[in-house]
């Protein structure tokens, strides 16, 4: 399917496993109980403490010691599923959830790329730590110096470094910068057309001001995915976040 994130989702009928239907019978016909397990794709072991979210319903939980998770009172239909495990590739998918099915989700280990260094997974005992987001979520240090030489505008920096976003800037004197996430998928009702929130030195910034920033004044740029941003900033972060730090820690043009 051309997806960069390896994943496997298998639906196993609860009837085939001999699971009683009493829990389902206790809910209304318009809602269901969503159950599942999260496994390591390499060795099949359960993953404990993995964050599982139904983002469109603002429901969050973590897997137990057997890798299982459960959501109560989920409306029947399609929902935005996110699965996040430290050291593993992130799963973000809009998924049709069906009553009386158990989700089996497998996550692959994620390599960690540092500036100029790439660490690959060599065996099932070698696990690389990574934060939420992707390997390409940060511009800073020597990379920022290189980008200042290559690109004259912040717009070009974002396009070069963050492959999971679309960047819009009409180049006009009053045009603002708009960064739209293309990672994962969104519910049809929300769409995926909102611009990411932007902050400069910890303060929310105007898109026009961000578009006009001189790269010489920029120290670091970090892109936070809309999934993580929404967990931290709520509705303001629903479309992602661009965090910009300036050289002297104050807003400049």
Question: What are its keywords?
Answer:
253 residues; mainly beta; Immunoglobulin-like; Ferric Hydroxamate Uptake Protein, Chain A, domain 1; 2 domains; 4-stranded mixed β-sheet; 5 helices; 17 strands
Structure description:
The chain is mainly beta and 253 residues long. It has 2 domains: 7-107, Immunoglobulin-like (Sandwich); 132-246, TonB-dependent receptor, plug domain (Ferric Hydroxamate Uptake Protein, Chain A, domain 1, Beta Complex). 14% of the residues lie in helices and 36% in strands. The chain is built from 5 helices and 17 strands. It has helices spanning 22-25, 141-150, 154-161, 207-211, 226-233; strands at 7-13, 31-40, 51-54, 59-62, 68-75, 77-84, 91-97, 101-107, 112-114, 117-119, 138-139, 165-168, 178-181, 197-200, 203-204, 218-224, 241-246. The strands form 5 sheets. It has a 5-stranded mixed β-sheet with strand order 11-16-17-14-15. It has a 4-stranded mixed β-sheet with strand order 1-8-2-5, with no helix packed on it. The chain has a 4-stranded antiparallel β-sheet with strand order 4-3-6-7, with no helix packed on it. β3 and β4 (59-62) form a beta hairpin. The longest helix is centred in the middle third of the chain and has 10 residues, at 141-150. The radius of gyration is 21 Å and the shape is elongated. The termini are far apart. 28% of the residues are buried. Mean pLDDT is 74; it is low at 1-28, 123-135 and 184-192.
